[in-house]
Specification:
about 30% helix; Rossmann fold; Glutamine Phosphoribosylpyrophosphate, subunit 1, domain 1; alpha+beta; glutamine amidotransferase (chains A, B, C, D); glycosyltransferase (chains A, B, C, D); homotetramer; 6-stranded antiparallel beta sheet; 18 helices
Chain lengths: ~475, ~475, ~475, ~475
């Protein structure tokens, strides 16, 4: 969750409901629990069976709907909503979802979590055929593809279009009388279905959003599925049968809320187990275990339990760091002033501290944490990472698509330790990661039904538009290891 | 810290610095770490040796200084700042501190944490003598008293005035060439002194504010002291010698940041110790211990360690609950929808859960937490409170000055348990509380140098304006227990 | 200009410049003088030869660019801008112009003043062919048409597209290296070209926008012309030769700024002449002439001069009526409380007053003005309108496209007088209107080169999508008079 | 009214009502018509007979009450309001009126138009006696004086206080059951009384504010009067009998709204008469007369009528110049770009133009106007000022209290003409000014009951705190002319 410290950012969270009074309000609460998946923009589109109503803007959900009248305007029994992460360059309101498109034969709203790997190619083809795009977003491509085939009917057009787009995606579409959800053939992004007491169905990125609206969990959406919800209830269809589960492991490691259950695994439990296996693989000689709040606290408590070391609060995180916060000057920063994290001197002073963190991206935060703990008197600082080294980019919706920013892509573990300044540095192995998560739905899918390409370079899909750039970023040895050759 | 759930609210936090370039900026960072002490308003006054500069407004610090230009306008080497809690009724900008008063013989700024017990009487006397008040705040009384005596000189006038006001108070005053700090004769509110690398002195409500600006801790301000900081350095003076330490125990239990050190005691360690002693006094038969985030996590981990039960994350707290958040409808609330806290179903389902919380004020949050855990499948819910029952109001700066809101003032523990719906309910004893905190500076002060009147009704000072109302709120038995008689 | 009182609202104003440093800033000042043409939204797109930069929002220009940084971000030597009137229903930011479209082969910005009469038909055809529209605006149709033909090259595609759209239009298009302007075949909306001292060319809806940036007037854009401005200078081309001047007479009567010169006629002079001819056609027995500020002051002074009656200030207009103004309650309104206009008691009391106004749309303002003057003591109130009765809607960009709101469409002059409560009511004849304006460029164009269809029902073009609805709104007699038959 | 162009700014407008439902709303409309008297801040305090309610902020009235809920909160049958001009330096919200003071024996609200000449002295004395001021405003002094005497009762204390303050002032005070108005002994600032249909009384700076709330004019408040309005009706009292009418002539020349009637004189009529007498004193050989909009249009039409020259619209003023407007760069300004005024080329080109303006303060606007007209082709530009040269400062509430800014204090008329660049420059004589206004209430008061000290240096009162500085600003000759000697 602490996106400001990490360099990793999930692209989005989605929520939809069909058949419930105050659908927009339910969507608002659902999106609230998904806010950790995106803080740059939020929006809701509702339907009253006749028309679609939209409100969206940049900022946090509570800012976008600061005026309650905006939410009240979104009448009707169906709605979809979206929270968005976006890089500053493209952070115009035109890119805030859900998109709402008006056609003489009916309006369509669209919300998306994920990333398409053949977006550039598709967009160029569409523009050459006369298409006019209104956003920079990949998401809009789907609607243009649908409209190309619209004379065949909406659902057939949608199925054809879903077979044309590639990558990791979870789409929600709202028409005046229908809510549609679709998941990519590898189920890379999470998406689940719930049901309200009144029988209405809910679709959300994570189960925490079902919980807040008191919806009973029904099932996870499966790879390649097309879910249609209308007045007749829930229809489970599919647009492809060439599927293979490869859910993003970073959801378990870092992104998802600890109370969410993805493909049968409670995220907190998976993290605690990562901590336990980390303690077995890498026991350290220390006086206490501390976690980096908030996302690493589960793993830290697992490490503490397994190792028998006391679990302490050695770092605390401010609740009040706002986007508008005035940043410390360079001089203050060099003195170790950090707005978000503080070391607890009274706890760590004079002690050998084992710090558990969930991942290292650029390494800058790790370095600051080690300095902060030493400044507060820690005698030794051992850094334990509850995931493997993050060496390869994500092309499925996490905002790291180049290797240049990844510390582990360029340095050995020992080099990283030196740069970070820790007394020791250890990572969880890929095998232990898979074992800690242990997806029950995995069947015989490789890597336990997980995408672990960030650690291994072995992606579950072709990379299309990204392939050439990716290949160039690999060194000789990596290319061979992955069986990739530049022609 | 989670003020929205509790009914308790600290009145303020203060920060001052003299002799450092960018004094206002340092004050901004210092106030940032004190934001948990007040979220209703914030302000800074700086001095460049010739003039005083002010900016203050309602809202969080980051909102008040959303425009960085406002901070840059506050030039000079000295500054004081304030974060404020205020009830909505009086939440006008006129009450946001520091107050800045212009006089033909020099400006004075004033910031205050605490509450005066004879404010009504003093104000009435002053008004009858021609005084015109600009705020509803007690704080302003001090300046009117000072001006009454001003012909005797500023410091003598201040000392006289400090002997006229009663209650719990920590004052900071800024003149163009001087920073002054004063603490009440019982040291009820915390106040500490630090020193920057360049020799400049810093004064703050908590040591976490020293840490963020990299100031070395010098000492706590002692009861009855008057601290003057000017170009010649630090002068420790006093305005009274009739002093006796009675630091507010709620600072340790609930208000202060876990990384702060008050009178030699790290707050996290005190809380963890409360949890340990609670486990000794009230062991329960459970499968796990969970804490109510964030302020009860330390006590919960103490309880877990002492009891040998696993420490789990059974409740999580949203980071994104804003003041502007649209509240759930009554129906949703009855369904258990809670914006701030969520139970982790995958952790508590089917389990006997021991929940540690730091206090019960009105009892409404406790009731919601128990319901939430049961809805998530908990088999048993045992509620363990790491402080004694809160039965008597605070007149020294915590925003509970009537007994009507206090659940423990009206119900026995068993009655409370029933209303809250827990399987068992236990409180820490007053003796264990005193033992857990264990203030080393206490000497032979009663109650270990703490104010524990909230639990015992035995206040360290006369109550002045509040005495009559307080007496009326007591029943016969309580009056006798406290040796108080209505004439 | 007083749009709030009238029911008439011009759709837009446009401004463009190519070849000048700080092009966006010049556009800002140009748009400032065109603000009377639209107060609902404003925007600017600039080009630095490589990229296009956009800022637009709802509200007045000064609000949209309240943060000067937004204007500074719009770098480059070329820019186009737009001020927009829009009905509240469609007042989303998506409809605020200029529109900016991104294509892999280059961006295009588009701004439009006018209205297309075959927009519905074109849009339906485009959508059925797969087009996805992003706004409700007619304007966007042009870009979809262009993209359909884009493989033939941009200028040929644009010419083809301009022959497909019908109605009244003035388009500005900006590409990274080119500014293009196009006017409809009847020149219904005004558009002029100017030149800066440095040789850069400027295009604007009115000459007042040339004046403010110190541009020398070059020429009016003529019907059917396509103006291309690039590094090689100004290129005058055309996309059709089937043209006939029919400039909108309402520009002279009401919309345009009095200092603008349209097709050789200074607007103030035209209005003053309307007042003079009105005095010749309808002399009244009165003590003074007063005008309704601000748009009728020219005509009123003309009437006064011709009639020899004194010209007085009998009505004054508040400068401070904001959009956010809290409207008087019904009771206050019935008492004659009016936020915008006040009668000057000391001037009109006891007098016979001749009030000159430029037009009557719904008649509600006229009624209020008469009441206000009588309440201030006027003995007689004679209402003189410096244009003919407004009986037929405008389909070329003025926001009256139904007859239901037009008082003169439903009542005789005598009936209008009674409803308004004036002692007499007179209108200028169509012939005098044409004579007063006296367009020198008119040649042998009918109606002196003016569109006077609002008074006669004789439109200079077919009405396409509007024809059926318009026919239904006519009575038998009107249909015959216009030679129109319902099949 | 065009404050941005002039250097002159009225300090305030006041409005009060007692005994009418929705008193705050009436006050809002009243203040709306007084907005020309101050645009920097606005506020209203209402009373419901038990409590006083306040809202005030910086900005225009419509901005301050942009949220209608703020106005609705101000319940009760009585209210006072204020619009304020303030220089940027002191433009804090603390200075925005009405001030509201809370006392244990009842609240008091206070609004003021004018300026006290012995404020510095009084404030110093009060502070030395212990007073704490909350604003920089002179206004607050009155409340401190009242509280000094409060044990004698409110009205006696007020009368004593009014005899202690000197200068030009119109005060409104609101207590929960009473509205009080007081005017200085010379009646320098205007103040009038009206009555609503329901019998409630209204007090306002100008009669235009009576008109908008449909109040019947009752009488002007006379010098030295104290008006008390309560449930028993209107009580006319006085605090001094040493009075002599000297109403500020600038109200007629420039500040007041043309529809207001001050001491029996309609402002428009006075201005028109100034124009007529100016034409008699200074006929010029020209083709037309034009006025500088808006405040000089009355005088211009008077000049035109008297001279027989045509009255034309040669300058127009933009309605859309906002405070936030981005100012033209220096280069653009030098090119004559002016945001507020434009010359009408089609009117003035090739013509000899007589421009009538109401006053010259710094001369910069006059210079710009002349340049603008010449740039638009005017052959000759004759500047005619409908008041005498403004040579001496105002100490009674107009924001010019030093002579350094006044062009006429430093240059002869011929020197002014050269600097401004006009072909001729003429001013109205003091005698004609007095004759044009012709106050019927004047009796045998000197200067026709007007303050004309701005032109003559002969002030109707001693200058107290300002005397020394003023004397220093005079040259030998001026000192002698005024019979003033420096000791």
């Amino acid at each position: 969750m602490p996106n400001e410290i990490k360099g990793l950012n999930e692209e989005c969270g989605v929520f939809g409901v069909f058949g419930a009074p105050d659908a927009a309000q339910l969507t608002y609460y659902g999106l609230h629990t998904l806010q950790h998946r995106g803080q740059e923009g939020a929006g809701i589109v509702s339907s009253d069976g006749a028309s679609l109503y939209q409100h969206r803007d940049r900022g946090l959900l509570a800012q976008v709907f600061a005026d309650q009248a905006e939410l009240k305007r979104l009448v009707g029994n169906a709605a979809i909503g979206h929270v968005r992460y976006g890089t500053s360059g493209h952070n115009s309101i035109a890119n805030v979802q859900p998109f709402l498109f008006h056609f003489h034969d009916g309006d369509i709203a669209l919300a998306h979590n994920g990333n398409l790997t053949n977006a550039v190619t598709l967009r160029r083809q569409l523009e050459d055929d006369g298409a006019v795009f209104q956003s920079d977003s990949d998401t809009e491509i789907l609607i243009h593809l649908i409209r190309k085939h619209i004379r065949e009917g909406f659902i057939p057009a949608l199925k054809q279009s879903l077979n044309q787009v590639h990558g990791g995606f979870a789409f929600l579409l709202l028409q005046k009388n229908r809510l549609v959800a679709a998941l990519d053939p590898n189920g890379i992004r999470p998406l689940c279905i719930g049901q309200l007491a009144n029988g209405a169905y809910v679709v959300a990125s994570e189960t925490c959003a079902l919980d807040i609206v008191n919806a009973r969990f029904v099932r996870d959406v499966q790879p390649g599925e097309l879910i249609v919800i209308d007045r007749d209830g829930l229809h489970i269809d599919h647009y492809t049968t060439k599927t293979r589960l490869a859910i993003c492991s970073m959801e378990y490691i870092y992104f998802a809320r600890p109370d969410s259950i993805i493909h049968g695994v409670t995220v907190h439990n998976a993290r605690k187990q990562m901590g336990r296996l980390l303690a077995r693989e890498h026991p350290v000689d220390a006086d206490m275990v501390i976690g980096v709040p908030n996302s690493s606290l589960s793993a830290a408590s697992g490490y503490a339990e397994e190792s028998g070391l006391p679990y302490e609060m050695g770092l605390i995180k401010s609740q009040y760091v706002a986007r508008t916060f005035i940043q410390p000057t360079q001089i203050l920063r060099e003195q170790g002033v950090h707005m978000k994290l503080s070391a607890v001197r009274g706890v760590v002073s004079g002690k050998r501290v084992a710090v558990v963190d969930d991942s290292i991206v650029r390494g800058t935060t790790s370095k600051q944490i080690v300095k902060m703990l030493r400044d507060a008197g820690a005698k030794e600082v051992h850094l334990l990472i509850s995931s493997p080294p993050f060496r390869f980019p994500c092309f499925y919706g996490i905002d790291i698509s180049t290797r240049s920013e990844l510390m582990a892509a360029h340095y050995s573990v020992e080099q990283m330790r030196q740069r970070i300044g820790a007394d020791s540095l250890h990572f969880l192995s890929v095998d232990s990661l898979i074992r800690a998560i242990n997806v029950p739905d995995a069947g015989d899918a490789p890597d336990g039904g997980l995408t672990v390409a960030y650690f291994t370079g072995k992606y579950p899909t072709p990379l299309y538009d990204y392939e050439a750039g990716y290949l160039k970023s690999l060194n000789e040895q990596e290319r061979r290891a992955q069986g990739r050759l530049i022609k």
